[in-house]
Design brief:
extended; Helix Hairpins
Length: 269
């Protein structure tokens, strides 16, 4: 488990060699482009996320290997195009990390380090450094293709680094109540407008995501836990219905609700 630095470098070099072999000899690997790999990389990333959510360390190790292979694959294609190779990728990342951690690595010849008091100050400095590097917006680093819930969290998190946020949690609660009221008002109109309903619903979700930050709750993880809880309880209802020779479509809501409450007690999730 405790490998030396030399052993780690050997493992990395071994994977680089295998990648060279695959690209030169395997018909499938030879055909791949950055575009064809893209969706596969996204899938591997979600598989890693699942393993992390399940606290499956064996799975995390396996999925990290798959993602590492993809990173090397892209670098190999970049090398073939004469654009960059794995050394360029890693060196650029090293330089960026050094540049964005002035509290660890001196940025000038005098050797002075930036003084920071906590992790929040580190995050704020990080965003300021990115702007100095040429980023036109604090929000520029948020990928367009992120799932909406995670994107909302990251947008708010980045805006907060430049102090664009409420000062007190009660203000966030007030905003949530305000957005829910606006949604209900629109939904209860005699002829509600579909786009307006979507806009108001989105505002409610955005406000709730913001509240999650103030409560120090990961909204994506919280929702996924609720998803899993619902699945387990609903499948319990399905199993009990099957044992009783019943069809869910023939059961009343009250009957299913009784089984739901039974699941809550027995499954304890």
């Amino acid at each position: 488990m405790d490998h030396t630095t030399e052993e780690r470098l050997q493992a990395f070099s071994r994977l680089l060699g295998i990648m060279d072999d695959l690209r030169a000899k395997c018909p499938w690997d030879m055909k791949q482009t950055m575009q064809t790999l893209r969706n596969l990389t996204i899938e591997e990333t979600y598989e890693l996320a699942d393993a992390i959510t399940e606290d499956d360390l064996k799975g995390v190790k396996e999925e990290l290997g798959d993602i590492m292979l993809h990173m090397i694959f892209y670098s190999k294609i970049g090398e073939e195009k004469g654009a960059f190779d794995i050394a360029d990728v890693l060196n650029d990342q090293c330089e960026k990390l050094i540049r964005r951690h002035p509290h660890i690595y001196p940025q000038h010849e005098n050797g002075d380090l930036l003084q920071v008091k906590d992790d929040e100050e580190v995050k704020k400095n990080w965003e300021q450094i990115k702007l100095k590097e040429g980023k036109k917006s604090v929000l520029q680093g948020v990928p367009q293709s992120l799932p909406a819930l995670i994107k909302a969290y990251r947008i708010q998190e980045k805006a907060a680094q430049v102090k664009f946020e409420w000062e007190h949690t009660w203000q966030v609660w007030k905003k949530v109540d305000e957005e829910i009221h606006e949604l209900r008002t629109e939904a209860e109109r005699q002829q509600p407008h579909q786009k307006k309903k979507e806009d108001e619903f989105g505002d409610v979700l955005f406000a709730l995501v913001n509240l999650s930050r103030y409560m120090q709750v990961d909204p994506e993880r919280a929702l996924e836990r609720t998803n899993k809880k619902f699945i387990s309880r609903f499948q319990y209802i399905e199993e009990k219905a099957k044992e009783a020779g019943r069809n869910l479509k023939e059961m009343t809501l009250a009957e299913m609700d009784d089984l739901w409450n039974e699941a809550k007690e027995k499954l304890k999730i």
